[in-house]
Design a protein that fits this description.
Elements (H helix, E strand, L loop, with lengths): L2 H13 L20 H12 L2 H6 L2 H16 L4 E5 L2 H17 L6 E5 L17 H10 L7 E6 L5 H12 L3 E6 L5 H5 L2 E4 L14 H20 L3 E2 L2 E2 L7 H15 L3 H10 L4 H10 L3 H10 L4 H9 L2
Parallel strand pairs: 1-2, 1-3, 3-4, 4-5
Antiparallel strand pairs: 6-7
Length: 314
């Protein structure tokens, strides 16, 4: 690179605000001339760096999970808010929680700029409206019991900033998930989670590494919050909702793995427990009728391990 080219690169960097997500990766300046195998290898190599970037934000992620779990125990909600790809990722993560962990759909919510239609069709103008972000939070009656997670690769999307600032004014816990350091979103939130993945293989295409990083963090926030709320027993999903034959079979297998019983016994106990995997497991392991197992779980706030400890100490 000549001195003139270097000066031009610095000037462009300043013009776009120095955002890592908008930089050009010079290693791939001849990307369009490479073979398909080389392209696949290059993209996979870039993606392999995402986990390390997420690891650098582990303390902040853990802090957010503890805050979310504390509020959800008291009846609060987890609300994701984003525009474009980040908004879609939030909607996706939220939609998978009810069947996986048996939570009411209104407890984990995904909000995307432009409304549900923007999930399939881009609504680019909506992301520039900070007032709309605040309005969407106001319509959902955000309170101090809720957690609002703003998601923005750049960390400066007006819609997301408007939503987070409004939520913070309501004393909700706010989390800012961005892929640039020192972001406006990080500064606006109580807990900044800034996962810096660097320049994309296609410059500015933040659905790539940035999107992967966001998906990884959202997986952690929702899944590990559910662990903190007693929705798992070891590695097993014990609050899954049985809505089809596949999930009925999974529920029976879960009971078998947790207790060592036969499939027939698991099926019978599941029926006695009115489809509650948790109740069936406690009933089998503690030797209790389903009604007593259900009561033991209620006293243990839904934690199987605590319920068994209480019963074994009687």
């Amino acid at each position: 690179m000549t001195e003139e080219q270097g000066d031009a690169s610095v000037a462009v960097h300043r013009e776009i605000g120095g955002l890592d997500t908008e930089q050009v990766n010079d290693e791939y300046s001849h990307l369009d001339a490479q073979s398909t195998t080389e392209l696949v290898r290059a993209m996979n190599r870039e993606d392999a760096s995402v986990a390390a970037a997420v690891a650098r934000a582990e303390p902040e992620i853990a802090s957010a999970i503890d805050g979310i779990a504390d509020r959800m125990r008291r009846g609060g909600r987890l609300i994701y808010v984003g525009a474009g790809t980040p908004g879609r990722l939030g909607v996706l993560d939220a939609s998978e929680i009810p069947p996986t962990f048996g939570l009411d759909p209104d407890r984990v919510i995904g909000v995307i700029a432009g409304g549900d239609g923007a999930i399939r069709s881009a609504a680019e103008g909506a992301e520039d409206d900070s007032a709309l972000g605040a309005q969407d939070m106001a319509q959902r009656d955000v309170t101090e019991l809720d957690t609002v997670v703003g998601i923005s690769a750049s960390g400066r999307t007006p819609y997301v900033l408007g939503a987070v600032k409004y939520a913070r004014e309501q004393n909700a816990l706010t989390v800012g998930l961005a892929c640039n350091s020192g972001s406006a979103l990080g500064r606006a939130a109580d807990v900044p989670i800034e996962v810096v993945v660097g320049a994309e293989i296609i410059s500015g295409s933040t659905r790539l590494k940035a999107g992967t990083a966001q998906k990884m963090v959202l997986n952690m926030l929702s899944t590990l919050t559910m662990v903190r709320l007693g929705k798992t027993y070891g590695t097993l999903m014990v609050d899954l909702q049985i809505t089809n034959e596949k999930l009925r079979a999974r529920a029976e297998r879960t009971i078998m793995r947790a207790t060592g019983c036969s499939r027939e016994h698991a099926a019978d106990q599941l029926d006695a427990a009115d489809g509650s995997v948790k109740t069936a497991i406690v009933a089998l392991l503690a030797g209790l009728p389903a009604a007593d197992a259900r009561a033991a779980l209620a006293q243990a706030d839904g934690f199987i391990r605590d319920a068994l400890t209480r019963e074994n100490s009687r």
